[in-house]
């Protein structure tokens, strides 16, 4: 009888130790998985900032600068004594900057394509850009036809109005990217903090 009880005690101790080690093993696996998830979340956030938000904001800032430079090229054709060759040079500068202003905004939208709520708020950009391009190009056409007064009036009126409307899209794009990056940053920090708390409890 005593021998049987000793065997039972030994088996009970073995079961307890087995369960204990199994539990420790499970906890260790959980800790490893949660730690990997934490690292993955942090890396994903860093990648978004390095590959999406920062380049997008930089792109739209440069695009806005290009748009402004195109406007400067338009205004410079009204300088006293400007030659036809200088008008052509200004028009070439205008075209180059206008194209860059468009291309960089397209690049911005591609970088922010994972956020349709941002892109949807910029839907009118193409129409606004094409309208400004047509009206500002008309200023050069008028000046080449020696219609100086008409060119100045068109530049100060219609061209200016379409330019200011278009710039609103560039300003909005920058603001939206900044707001979205702040939101993603807060979400990431919250997720990381919660997982750290869970890791602390489990460990």
Mean pLDDT: 80
Written as H for each helix and E for each strand, in order along the chain, the element string is HHHHH
Q: Rough shape?
A: elongated
Cα radius of gyration in angstroms: 32 Å
Describe the largest sheet.
none
Q: Determine the strand fraction and express it as a percent band.
A: under 5%
Q: Give the low-pLDDT segments.
A: 2-7
What portion of residues is helical?
over 70%
> What is the helix tally?
5
What would you call the structural class?
mainly alpha
**Total strands:** 0
Q: How widely separated are the two ends?
A: 43 Å
Task: Describe the protein.
By secondary structure, the chain is mainly α. The chain is built from 5 helices and no strands. Helix 1 (2-76) runs antiparallel to helix 5 (148-202). The two termini are 43 Å apart.
Structure characteristics:
203 residues; elongated; 0% strand; single chain; mainly alpha; 90% helix; disordered N terminus
């Amino acid at each position: 009888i005593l021998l049987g009880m000793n065997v039972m005690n030994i088996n009970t101790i073995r079961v307890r130790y087995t369960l204990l080690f199994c539990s420790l093993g499970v906890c260790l696996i959980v800790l490893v998985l949660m730690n990997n998830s934490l690292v993955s979340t942090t890396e994903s956030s860093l990648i978004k900032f390095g590959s999406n938000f920062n380049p997008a904001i930089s792109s739209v800032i440069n695009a806005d600068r290009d748009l402004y430079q195109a406007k400067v090229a338009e205004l410079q054709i009204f300088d006293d004594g400007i030659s036809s060759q200088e008008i052509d040079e200004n028009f070439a500068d205008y075209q180059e900057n206008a194209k860059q202003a468009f291309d960089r905004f397209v690049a911005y939208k591609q970088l922010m394509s994972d956020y349709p709520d941002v892109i949807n708020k910029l839907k009118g950009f193409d129409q606004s850009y094409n309208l400004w391009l047509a009206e500002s190009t008309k200023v050069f056409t008028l000046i080449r036809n020696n219609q100086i007064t008409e060119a100045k009036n068109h530049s100060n009126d219609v061209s200016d109005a379409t330019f200011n409307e278009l710039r609103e899209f560039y300003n909005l794009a920058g603001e939206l990217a900044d707001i979205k990056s702040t939101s993603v940053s807060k979400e990431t920090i919250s997720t990381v903090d919660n997982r750290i708390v869970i890791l602390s409890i489990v460990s």
